[in-house]
Amino acid sequence: MIGRLSGRLDYRAADHVLIDVRGVGYVVYCSDRTMASLPGPGEAVSLYTDLLVREDLMQLFGFPTLVEKEWHRLLMSVQGVGAKASLAILGTLGADGVSRAIALGDWSAVKAAKGIGPKTAQRIVLDLKDKAPSVMAMMAPAQAPAPADAGEAPVEVVETAAPAPKAAPPSNTNAQADAMSALSNLGYGPSEAAAAVAEARAEAPEADSPALIRAALRLLAPKG
């Protein structure tokens, strides 16, 4: 499976690009938001990819971050949501917006995407609500791939660390830090994020990262 491509952007179309990787051209479909963020023809580009295989079709879809790729895969798992609908949602809301909308049960935000009706939006929120915090916990400033040389081949790199002494199990302090980071990446200010996480932790001292994120988001949701 092709998980990432790094090469030179050959040309741009309305909904896809052609990436040249050492003489091999890959057609990669992207959301409007991702298309707008890509460089011009001839420049280096790197995208995480997801390969869709059907009996009569093979398509690559590109994403700037692993979080967005994960959301695409989750959205595609919902009945009635295909690749086109997933890209429309991600193009309208972005990975952060999708995380926030689904975690808060805000199906009207999902419905704002082109071609997404109210029933489909409600189904998406219902099916994926419990998965939102775990995806949000993946967020980190360094998740986006670094620009690559145009001639770089698509290589999956697995880093292995040297054996280290056994560490203590993650503490609630780690869960609090994870929650703060996720809320910060969603656009919440440090003070409001800290207050919400502190209140959520006070109500559930043993909560793990996903549970703490979910509880804090509920506290931050508009009332009424």
From TrEMBL:
Keyword DNA-binding on entry: yes
Localization (cell): Cytoplasm
SMART domains (UniProt xref): HhH1
GO molecular function terms listed in the Swiss-Prot or TrEMBL record: ATP binding; four-way junction DNA binding; four-way junction helicase activity
Alphabetized InterPro entries for the sequence: DNA_helicase_Holl-junc_RuvA_I, Hlx-hairpin-Hlx_DNA-bd_motif, NA-bd_OB-fold, RuvA, RuvA_2-like, RuvA_C, RuvA_C_sf
Residues of the Helix-hairpin-helix DNA-binding motif class domain: 73-92, 108-127
Superkingdom in the source lineage: Bacteria
Sequence similarity: Belongs to the RuvA family.
Notes concerning its domains: Has three domains with a flexible linker between the domains II and III and assumes an 'L' shape. Domain III is highly mobile and contacts RuvB.
Protein task: The RuvA-RuvB-RuvC complex processes Holliday junction (HJ) DNA during genetic recombination and DNA repair, while the RuvA-RuvB complex plays an important role in the rescue of blocked DNA replication forks via replication fork reversal (RFR). RuvA specifically binds to HJ cruciform DNA, conferring on it an open structure. The RuvB hexamer acts as an ATP-dependent pump, pulling dsDNA into and through the RuvAB complex. HJ branch migration allows RuvC to scan DNA until it finds its consensus sequence, where it cleaves and resolves the cruciform DNA.
Protein name (Swiss-Prot/TrEMBL): Holliday junction branch migration complex subunit RuvA
